[in-house]
Design goal:
This protein has 497 residues and is of the alpha+beta class. It has 19 helices and 8 strands. The strands form 2 sheets. The protein has a 6-stranded mixed sheet, with helices on both faces. It has a two-stranded antiparallel sheet with strand order 7-8.
Length: 497
């Protein structure tokens, strides 16, 4: 495709679960049209493709964005996010075209789209059809210079391939590669070894920008010149510190423990104008290395871009929760909710709940928060149901289990017969200690099983209604709820974990 940055012809956007979580990778052409793109694909993303033996892709072919879009929506067998693999995550690919494709073009373009699987979220100029290297039976398409008649779409015209220019570029790239290798193993005669390549700085800043804008939901992310790059680095290290909530980190709530893993103040400030100099790059590497060490992740010998990637993984709240939930659940049950400013900072690291997940997760989670609050558990608030429903699910099923409680036999010995009888009805372990459910049917089935154990015979068929019934009839009296909460004082995690 020619001039895809200007015309959009062949520009690709991909939604999937990356190693850092859910996000988009997209061609620069979509930057000014991203809100419009989301409106186009919103309904598709909410309709989950079929799974199992009759699994099939959803094929998208419709007018949009001033032209036409072709897309594919299916299960992602190479999902990079370990947290999402057990939920059969999807991958959504879409390409923009200025003309309506023929049947043969659609089949060929869909086949090419299936091979597109970007590894990192964010802006990527390589996400265009011309960069796939596909040999086709048609010449590349270029919009006709002749304006289309009113009511008609301009038909693209084939243009000749420029083999000479392409061959020259290959030769120049080969020479540059040889010189780069040669300069790396011998002493350069021009005043010592060359400075680190500028793309090392650029790729590091670009990865920081991807994390800030896509993963950590920072709408003010800008980069591309020395001043903007320095501001972006400052924003990155400020977010990855306890500022500005350090004085509000009190108690043992998991959110407090999570933020106390970060340094008290930003580790790096770039105030000099030579942002891409070797001195500034060394300063940046030192700060990144210190931050990784603070987070308990080794960094020896890794390039700065890879270390930034490791930081993104180390401060992923849901991954941290999954690794330490057994020690964190008692603290969540027995500690009050954190200050709103602390919670807002933590939400940045929790990842976004997708539109398809929010449909079935958020409403039951709100009902669970209401029940937990009525039972004296104040560590969760309504916003948690919207921002991290999996945390609410984990707390709810943990609270209504025998984990970390005295056994019914021990209670009998203490002649605490009422609590012994009620505790004997609870499951020994929570259904999903991490709070992750595959779909609404699985959540509903686990709630129904819990209701049966509590002696409830008439079971609604909706998750929210089951939560309401369990709250009214199954959880016992006020004294029992106090018993459930007070017997769960747990250990505190060391700050380095």
């Amino acid at each position: 495709m020619k001039n895809s940055t200007q015309t959009g012809e062949g520009a690709i956007a991909v939604h999937r679960w990356f190693s850092t979580g859910e996000g988009w990778a997209y061609h620069p052409w979509y930057q000014a049209r991203f809100a419009e793109l989301l409106d186009v694909v919103k309904t598709d993303l909410q309709q989950r493709p079929k799974e199992g033996a009759d699994a099939r892709e959803q094929l998208i072919d419709r007018p949009a964005l001033g032209g036409f879009v072709l897309g594919l929506h299916g299960i992602d067998p190479q999902c990079q996010d370990a947290r999402a693999r057990d939920r059969n995550p999807t991958i959504y690919r879409v390409v923009f075209l200025r003309h309506r494709p023929t049947a043969s073009e659609r089949a060929r373009l869909w086949d090419q789209l299936r091979r597109v699987a970007p590894e990192c979220p964010g802006v990527d100029a390589n996400l265009e059809l011309s960069s796939l290297g596909e040999k086709t039976d048609r010449a590349p398409m270029e919009l006709s210079e002749t304006p289309a008649a009113p009511g008609k779409v301009a038909r693209p015209q084939p243009v000749r391939r420029r083999f000479g220019l392409f061959l020259c570029l290959i030769v120049l790239a080969g020479i540059a590669g040889v010189l780069g290798w040669f300069g790396g193993i011998v002493e350069w005669p021009f005043g010592g070894a060359p400075t680190p390549p500028k793309d090392d700085w650029d790729s590091t800043v670009r990865r920081m920008a991807d994390l800030l804008s896509t993963k950590w939901q920072d709408p003010e992310t800008r980069y591309g010149n020395p001043k903007l790059d320095r501001e972006l680095v400052d924003r990155f290290f400020t977010l990855l510190s306890q500022d500005p909530v350090r004085d509000k980190l009190e108690g043992k709530h998991p959110d407090v423990q999570f933020l106390q893993r970060l340094p008290e103040h930003p580790l790096c400030r770039l105030e000099t104008p030579a942002a891409s100099s070797s001195e500034e790059l060394a300063k940046l590497r030192k700060a990144i290395t210190e931050l990784l060490a603070k987070l308990g992740s080794p960094a020896q010998g890794k390039p700065t871009k890879e270390m930034v990637e490791n930081i993104g993984q180390a401060v992923d709240y849901q991954t941290w929760w999954k690794n330490h939930h057994e020690k964190l659940l008692p603290a969540l049950i027995t500690n009050p909710a954190v200050d709103g400013q602390v919670r807002a900072k933590v939400y940045r690291f929790c990842g976004k709940v997708s539109a398809s997940e929010s449909v079935w997760q958020c409403e039951p989670a709100k009902d669970m928060v209401k029940s937990l609050n009525e039972w004296g558990v104040s560590g969760l608030v309504d916003d948690d149901a919207e921002k991290r429903p999996w945390l609410v699910f984990a707390a709810y099923f943990y609270f209504l289990s025998r984990q970390d409680l005295p056994s019914p036999e021990a209670l009998e010995l203490k002649e605490d017969r009422d609590n012994a009888e009620l505790a004997s009805k609870l499951p020994e372990k929570p259904a999903r200690p991490t709070g992750c459910f595959k779909d609404e049917a699985e959540l509903t089935a686990q709630l129904a099983e819990l209701a049966k154990k509590l002696g409830i015979k008439e079971l609604p068929d909706r998750a929210g209604a089951l939560v309401e019934v369990i709250g009214r009839r199954g959880a016992g009296n006020k004294e029992y709820r106090v018993f459930l909460r007070k017997n769960r004082e747990g250990p505190r995690l060391p700050n380095g974990d």
